[in-house]
Amino acid sequence: MTQPGRFITLEGGEGAGKSTNLSFVRDYLQDRGISVVTTREPGGTPMAERIRALLLAGDEEDPLDDLAELLLVFAARAQHLSQVIRPALARGEWVVSDRFTDATFAYQGSARGIACDRIAMLEQFVQQGLAPDLTLWLDMPVTHAADRLAARGGERDRFERERGDFFERVRQGYRMRAAQAPERIVPVDASQSLEQVQHDIGRLLDQQLSSWN
User: Fold this and answer.
1) Which of 197 and 3 is assigned the larger pLDDT?
2) Which pLDDT does position 2 carry in this prediction?
C-alpha cells in the first residue's frame, strides 16, 4: 500500500522570496530521494491559472468585490485540490506549494476584513480537513519587502499595488495564524541573506524529516 505523501507550503507577503525558496525546498527533498510536485496558489491547473489571472489583473472600471475575490480563491483551490494536490499525495508524492489557505486568512481575512469564520467555513467545505503538514512562513518587515519589489521592477499586479498598511495587515494575519498553529507554521526570517535563509530552511527541514521518520 502506498504511503500518502507530505504537504509543505511556503507563505509570506509580496517580495518574501517564496518562489526562490520553493525551488530550494524541492531540490532539498529530491536530493533525499523524495518525489516532489511543486505548485502554486492561486493556480496550479489550467483552470485555476485562468482564475489567478482574474484575481491579479484588476479593473478600475469594474473593481473586484472582496467577497467575489474570496470565492474565486476557493474556486481555484477546489480545482487545484482535485486535479493536483490530492492525486499527488495519494500516489505517495510530496507536494510543495507557493501559498495555500493561510494566505487566504492573511489577505482576504486580515487585510480585506472578511470574517475568519466565513473563511473557515469555506476551508472546511472545500478542503474536507486537508491541511499542510508543514508551513514555512517567510517573514520580513513590510518596508524591506517593498524595497525588494521596487528593485525587481516590472509591472505590478493588483495585490502588489496595494498600500503599505494593507501589507501590515497581511503580516499581522500571518502572525495570528502562526500563533494559532505553532506546531505547523514555522517562521523564517526572510530579511536575511538568501544563503542564511536557505541555511535556516534546510535546518528546519532536517528536523522535520527526522521527526516524521
Assistant:
1) 197
2) 66
Does 202 show up as a binding residue in the annotation? no
Q: Check the annotation: does 18 bind a ligand.
A: yes
Q: Is 110 marked as binding a ligand?
A: no
Nearest to 123 by CA among 103, 138, 137: 103
Domains of the chain (ranges; CATH) run 7-212 (3.40.50.300)
Annotated binding residue 153:
no
Q: Count CB atoms within 10 A of the CB of residue 23.
A: 12
Phi, psi of 134 (to 5 degrees): -150, 135
Q: What is the pLDDT of residues 146-167, one digit of tens each?
A: 888 777 777 788 888 888 899 9
Cell 526562490 -> residue: 20
Supply angle C-alpha 197, 200, 202, rounded to 5.
Answer: 110
* 131 annotated ligand binder: no
In degrees and rounded to multiples of 5, residue 156 shows phi and psi of -95, 145
Binding residue per annotation — 15? yes
Annotated ligand binding at 164? The verdict is: no
Q: Name the residue with cell 528536523.
A: 207
d(CA 47, CA 168): 31
Q: Could you give the CA distance from residue 182 to residue 185 in angstroms, rounded to a whole number? A: 5
109 is in an annotated binding site: no
Q: What is the pLDDT of residues 36-74, one digit of tens each?
A: 999 999 999 999 999 999 999 977 778 899 999 999 999
In the numeric block, the cell 494593507 is attached to 166
The pTM score is 0.94
